[in-house]
Amino acid sequence: MAVISATNLTYSYNSFSPPSLVGINIQLPPGSRTILVGANGAGKSTLLQLFAGKKLVSTPGAEVKIKDQDVFRNSPSGVTFLGTEWAMNPVVRGDISVAAFLDSVGGYRHKERRDHLLDILDVDLDWRMHKISDGERRRVQLCFGLMAPWDVLLLDEVTVDLDVLVRQDLLNFLKDDSEKRGATILYATHIFDGLNDFPTHVAHMRFGSFVTLPTPWDLSKKSTTLYQVALDWLKEDREFRKELERTGKTIARGARRNEAVPSDSETFYRKYDYSH
Fold first, then answer.
1. Are 11 and 180 in contact, with CB atoms under 8 Å apart?
2. How confident is the model at residue 58 (pLDDT cuts 50, 70, 90)?
3. Is the same domain home to 104 and 227?
4. Same domain, 126 and 158
5. How many domains does the chain have?
6. 172: containing domain
7. Cβ-count burial of 88 within 10 angstroms (0-12 exposed, 13-18 middle, 19+ buried)?
8. Name one Pfam family in it (predicted).
9. How does pLDDT run across 80-129, given as a tens digit for each residue?
10. Are strands 33-37 and 184-188 parallel, antiparallel or unpaired?
């Protein structure tokens, strides 16, 4: 039985924009650790947010389930979502110590795991939340999010602020935790160094669809690294997009060299003067 699944999933943010996800059909087995690969805008974050129940799907016939439960109507327990927006929340930038913050969200209930994570993430309990860096705040988020045991972990680029050592220690912890408890991880990232032996599956998204569905990743049978696989996929994505641009099916990116550019600041600002 799939622990994470989506069927006939299409999603649009509004009625006048192209869909962000189109015809998604995937199934992930229990205990799997899947890496989502795709360029910016491929739909990875949207998919993770939907699995987390943070966005509502209204497409007829679409199903989004975790542990065989509808994530919108019967939210399953044991699901943890960690995204990049947390560190910008003003609540977690208040004048409060890390120790008090973790206690306020129930850290005392999971003291053994909390303490283990504090060591792995190299967190100082005396840090003041309003004084620490974004990377240090990210470490606190990870401790907060991971200290309660999870069955399904949805990660959206949450290691981007971490230094190499802390990131590697965290990945080792997540892999070990997943293997010991049979827990499942779906992880979207753009950083592939040090990930070779982490995933059980890899998947490739492009323009809201899967080019490569979650596929078993067995490092012992690979002649290349995950980094190189991701690089090759992203190069294919760029060529695919450029072909769409050449045929007029999408707007071209990059410099517009035939477009007149104001040669002085007065001309530039006059162009955007709406007072007349």
1. no
2. confident
3. no
4. no
5. 2
6. 1-78+151-253
7. exposed
8. ABC_tran
9. 999 987 767 777 788 899 999 999 888 889 999 999 999 999 999 999 99
10. parallel
Rounded CA-CA distance 61/269 in Å is 51
Do 140 and 65 reside in the same domain of the chain?
Answer: no
Which of 148, 163, 196 is the last residue in one of the domains? 148
**Same domain, yes or no: 96 and 130:** yes
Q: Are 129 and 137 in contact (CB under 8 A)?
A: yes
CB atoms within 10 A of CB 266: 9
Instruction: Grade residue 275 by pLDDT with cuts at 50, 70 and 90.
Output: low
Angle at 13 between CA 28 and CA 82, to 5 degrees: 45
Residue 149 CA: distances (Å) to CA of 49, 92, 112, 230: 20, 22, 11, 30
Amino acid code (one letter) for 133: S
Q: Are residues 240 and 175 in the same domain?
A: yes
176 burial (CB, 10 Å; 0-12 / 13-18 / 19+) is exposed
What is d(CA 43, CA 10) in angstroms, rounded to the nearest whole number? Answer: 11
pLDDT grade for 236, boundaries at 50, 70 and 90: very high
The verdict on 164 and 245 lying in the same domain is yes
**Other C-beta atoms lying within 10 Å of the C-beta of residue 173:** 18
Task: Report yes or no: 145 and 107 within 8 Å, Cβ to Cβ.
Answer: no
Q: Do 73 and 205 fall within a single domain?
A: yes
pTM of the predicted structure, to 2 decimals: 0.90
